[in-house]
Amino acid sequence: MRLVLLLLFFLGYGFSFSQTITGTVREKGSGLPLPFSNVFINNTTIGSATDPEGRFRISGDFASEIELVASFVGYVTEVKTISFRNRNEVQVDFVLAFNESNLSEIELKAKRDKSWEREFRRFEEVFLALPDDPYKSQIEITNPWVVEFEKVKPDKGPNYLRATAQQPLKITNTALGYEIDYYLQDFRVLRNGSRFYGQVFYEPINSSDEQELEQWESAREVNFHSSLRHLNESILLSSSDSLFFRLYHALPEQMDRRRTNDFTQELNESIVLVSKDSILRRPLGDGNFRIFLPGRMEVHHLDKPWRNDYYTNIYHAISWIQAPDGYYDVDRKGVLLNPTQLVLSGYMGRQRMARILPLDFEPDRKFVTEQTQQEVITSPAIRFNRLREKVWLTTNKPYFYPGETAWIGGRMLYQDQTLADSLSRVVYVDLINYKSEVIQSATFPIEQGKISGGLALSADLAPGDYALRGYTHWNQNFGELDQFVAPFLVMESGFQPKVEAVESEFVQGEITVKPEFSVSDSLSYRVMDLKLEILDEFQNPIDGEFILSLTDGETVVELEQANSLEEGMNWLDGKLPDDFDSPLSYPVEYGISVQGKFTADNKRRPAINPITVVRGDLEDFGQVMTDSLGNFWATGLYFKDTAQIAVAAMDDKLRPFGSVELLPLTRPRLSSILPKYSYTKEPIREENKTLDVSGDYILLEEFVKEDVKERETMAERNYGYGEPTQQVSGDVLEKESIGEILGRLGFNMSTLKFRNYTYGERTGTPLLIIDGSSMPYMDPNEFRITVLGFEPSQLESIKVYSDNISKSIFGMAGYAGVIMIETKKGLRTGPESSSKFNSEGFQIFPVPGFTDFAEFPKNPASDQYLRKKPTIYWEPEAISEAGLFRTQVKVPYGVKSINIRVEGRTVDGEAFSKMLKVEF
Q1: Which of 13, 253, 527, 856 could form a disulfide with 874 if both were Cys (CB 3.0 to 4.6 A apart)?
Q2: Class of domain 718-832
Q3: InterPro entries attached here (predicted)?
Q4: Domain 2-96 has CATH 3.40.109.10
Q5: 571: pLDDT strictly greater than 70
């Protein structure tokens, strides 16, 4: 999000010589003095209170022009611009008007509700500190009730949220050691940006603790040296490029072609080093300067260790600055005169009130920031909190009967969304009774943070209250609160739950979902054309990803929603306790995993040995190392149901030795207190006795089938492996060499590695697939001979799977990435692979994979009569485009009403839920 901070409405702050400001503060109308009024220079620690006669006097070294602010409780704050040109003393008189709309503290507090609390959390993130800023816990608004919110719908432009405050915000910043009065003049939040400004007075906090004072002084120095003011000052003085900042010009003509996150490869390609003394700057004749930028500048904060996901091999903070007009103006201290002249993003764009210093702060010029990550990682709890994830699940309807299929959809919640691709790709789902016994389990893949699965409930399952639990192997490191647990109701056949009336329409969050539909008849069912319009709180269209369920309104009784996504996301606000520490003994799973223990048959064998893991007949393959105790862990396998996994340690002559045993994965502990629905039961009317089972249709024999359209070929469907990361075909194959083409696709033929995606790990050669035939685990020479032996003009396409998401389906064999080559003849032209797996000496284990389940039947053939069922439509991965989602729903004849439930998140992460009933 781009953030334009209109914090500093001032004109300059180049200190020169001693000046004096005198004046009075009086009440408008009566002319009476206002004693003890606050008079201060905006954005500084310099100020004074008026005496009993309303007079004040302020002396110091001021800039040629300043903003002087006068305030008094219950009166409207007044701001005046003061010029010192050609004079050392200025007389300023203020007349303050009584604030007629002022509300008492009790009245303001009474206006707070859940909606206000949600808006205030957003206000704090924009105004005080970002959620992952270590300073967030050290800055607080002590009078939050003075803030009020209003949704504004202008005649032109997008709608936005505005915040106002009748009284100054009282802020305590214990990170930098200031008490702050902030007189908020404007604050607005849009979907794609934010801005705020006001007048600010800083007062250093008094402390007798020498250590605390030293910490504050150090924090102030650190923040000054990474600030825009310091960067501007170093540009004006042409100071050394190597100590605090390094500047690069981001070339606009190269940015669209940028393909890597490798700094060394992008240097002199998409970015060019710029010396600060080469940046043009011109004096304006009034003590101020104009700085001209050649374009978008990339700023590297060399003294500021910080995580970033822009480069994989750079470990300091990065900012970007751009002047829309090509220039911006500063005073000789580097203070930006007009904040609208610059757009900041990256680290500098993160700056909120928690890190902003008063303009009269003078740094220690001998100070050098220590190369330490103390600020970034202040405790194990902060470091580990970033690594947390949690499962959230929902089902196609609120209760089930024995023998039914329960379809499951879900989303992963991440404390740090930038780490999503590096965390779990396997979720475990358990059905648990109230004796804390696991009745049924399933394992589903996590694909781009989404979960889709199904549980076929046993016909012998006893009716009653159960719980649905979801977890990953990794989040067992963080305790019970990181598990998902929700009630799961199994009703007795012939009965349905009886509950108090549930409102037919409810909304959680500020997102609106508006449905429109039309219905037409066909031979076997009715066709419902459904359109859902998603609008944000300002009634602007917004895209989202959501789970959509349509159930028969007469058959399915709606229960009070338990564990909505919005409630589930409250977990994001919870942090680990300060004393949390963990060995992180539960590894991340990138696919189906096996763990075990190896025992050598000879004490002279080395303590650490490679373990070879093979699925089937070399359908997947990988090697892992034991630890010094013989324990090993292999993950990344991708298969459904149960596979035969061969495991052995191999010596230098590739002969198995020793023995292995596989150990079961641990399950997390479960609380003895499980959630339940509140309900009674009542008999079902005979005509409503239907069950959710897949594939239950009646063939209409008299119906004449239409010609069946020829299916796509395996090649057209990428041999079942989904969309590649990148591909080339056509003219490119006619004009470029194989090496140039692979370079275009991010693959380096000399190192046999994809750029950026293996992060320096030892991964071996990529998996090569030629016309659908896999050629895994080739040695480097064989790989080069095979790939370089192709004439590109004879190929149909070359596709690569190199990112962590797309290559995961290939299992351990595709860990180093995948190159898929399709020839025009559809025949392999390279050498045949003769490798077949010889399992002699290996131990074979049956290992469960991902749970196979029947997909929800959304598209029955037109010659099959569609029976009534409780669930009419289920889509766990719905996505809107331009705020709209459209689909066709096959509705059985006899359905008179439909419950529509939508639950998901917007593109910027806000949860929403809506349920309504439509009548036919």
Answers
A1: 856
A2: mainly beta
A3: CarboxyPept-like_regulatory (IPR008969), Plug_dom_sf (IPR037066)
A4: no
A5: yes
